[in-house]
Specification:
heterodimer, A: 103 residues, mainly alpha, B: 222 residues, globular
């Protein structure tokens, strides 16, 4: 088997397990009491981290400032103006594309 | 919302995520092209999108392979990038119903975007929104990969179009309505700070997993 296929199958199997662990093991039952409080805060914690890593992430051990930050700022302005999700996302992409075209 | 018909909830999830589906399609094409350049057969690229279904891990694995890296480094990098799915899958676990096989299959539709969009204002998750949104993203991602692996570049370079900035903007838009209380604001601030602090120091993926630890602020003593 080629190197690529080994990677494909190993990463696929690992990801299937990571995604299934909650629904398969816990599915339908309530989580233990102390965990529910923590799980309720997972969304704000993880979404904030995703904003940071998607806007300023590079490869390993890398923090980069590029046109994505301008796009994120433009998206934030659209959010402040209470624009719908589609408009926020399109604004961010358009601002980034414009900055790259001009840069 | 509790009284609405199930079909409507699936469709609501699909409709809410539709614009992101187009972005996923464009990145799927890019992954297909990059995977071929990295020496993967079209069928291997397609298999990876169908089983892994997570953009950042797939791009990392393909680029390591393309640069001549070994199996271990590609697998470890991808597994680290996807490690966040363990806490994410735990957070939605109690909403999944039916037999183990059905729960296993439906859980594969969990990705950052379908998960985030399925969170209700009461802090629980709506499985139907997640599945509806996840299906749209899955078809877009796998379909885009097929187009890219078959040699198509019809959609242009996603970065020229600024589409990589769509993701942080999407996550910000989904975050803002959640941070109405002091507790959620603290969790968001801690998550962002942990990620920022670790990004220059740790391999990609680790900052996000570490940031998810900020949710332990909500561990209840009761």
């Amino acid at each position: 088997m080629s190197t690529a296929w080994i990677v494909v199958l190993a990463v696929g199997a690992a990801t299937v397990v990571l995604k299934a662990v909650g629904p398969v093991l816990v599915g339908g039952r309530n989580l233990p009491r102390p965990l529910t409080g923590a799980v309720g805060l997972l969304a704000p914690a993880l979404l904030a981290a995703l904003v940071v890593t998607q806007a300023a992430g590079g490869g390993d051990r890398e923090l980069v400032a590029d046109e994505r930050l301008l796009g994120l700022a433009a998206g934030a302005v659209a959010l402040l103006l209470r624009a719908p999700l589609l408009v926020v996302v399109v604004t961010a992409a358009a601002a980034t594309a414009a900055a790259r075209a001009l840069g | 919302m509790a009284g609405s018909r199930p079909e409507a909830r699936y469709r609501d999830g699909a409709r809410a995520i539709a614009p992101i589906g187009l972005v996923a399609l464009a990145f799927g094409v890019t992954f297909g092209v990059l995977a071929r350049e990295a020496g993967m057969e079209a069928l291997a690229a397609l298999t990876m999108s169908a089983t892994t279904f997570a953009g950042s891990a797939q791009f990392a694995a393909a680029s390591i392979l393309g640069a001549g890296g070994g199996v271990a480094s590609a697998v470890v990098a991808a597994a680290l990038l996807n490690a966040r799915y363990a806490p994410i899958s735990l957070s939605v676990a109690s909403e999944f119903r039916g037999g183990a096989l059905r729960r296993l299959l439906e859980s594969q539709l969990i990705v950052d975007e379908s998960w985030a969009i399925s969170r209700r204002s009461d802090g629980r998750y709506d499985r139907r929104l997640l599945v509806g949104a996840g299906l749209v993203l899955y078809v877009s991602w796998v379909g885009g990969t097929a187009l890219g692996a078959a040699g198509g570049e019809a959609l242009g370079d996603p970065e020229t179009l600024g589409l990589d900035a769509a993701f942080p903007a999407l996550f910000l838009a989904l975050l803002v309505p959640l941070v109405r209380s002091g507790r959620t604001r603290a969790a968001a601030a801690a998550g962002a700070a942990i990620a920022l602090a670790l990004m220059p120091l740790a391999p990609a993926g680790v900052p996000i997993v570490a940031a998810s630890g900020a949710c332990l602020l909500g561990w209840s003593r009761a």
